[in-house]
Amino acid sequence: MNTTWFLRIPLSATFFYHGAGKLLVPQLSAELHGLPLWLTLLVGVAEILVAVGVIAGGTRLPQAALGNRLGALGAIPILLGAIVIEHWPKWSFVASESHPLGGMEFQVALLGIALFLLVDGRRRRE
User: For the chain, how many structural domains are there in total?
Assistant: First the structure.
């Protein structure tokens, strides 16, 4: 059984959802995060590509390993940016007055998944 799907699906779903949100309402997303519009669009496209790469990495496609590595590698700077720009230094994901988008707990968990897929996430033999 290919157990990496238990990691791939939540990581991909999260990245796809956040990327789609940035691409569907880019101006609102840019204002919310305090980023330039071009950077918001770039991150949104990158998030969609991460989702596709991580899902493709679990398939039997000829270039699955490459898609897996590129998807996981692409997730890392996005997650580090989210941690530094939005969530640092608060740990708890619960929103507060100082951190209206919550702390970095969730992003650190996703970062761990991305690192696993990058280092050892090749499609497992069934």
Answer: 1
Q: Can you give the pTM of this predicted structure?
A: 0.90
Check residue 88 and report its DSSP letter.
T
Structure tokens that stand for 34 in this block: 């305090």
Please provide the DSSP assignment of 16-36 as one string: HHHHHHHHHSHHHHHHHHT--
- For residue 111, the model assigns a pLDDT of 97
Is the residue at 126 inside a domain? no
**Nearest Cα to 77, choosing from 110, 34, 124?**
110
Residue numbers of the domain that contains 64: 5-120
Cβ proximity of 57 and 121 under 8 Å: yes
Please report whether residue 98 resides in a domain.
Answer: yes
If you search the block for the tokens 């530094």, which residue do you land on?
84
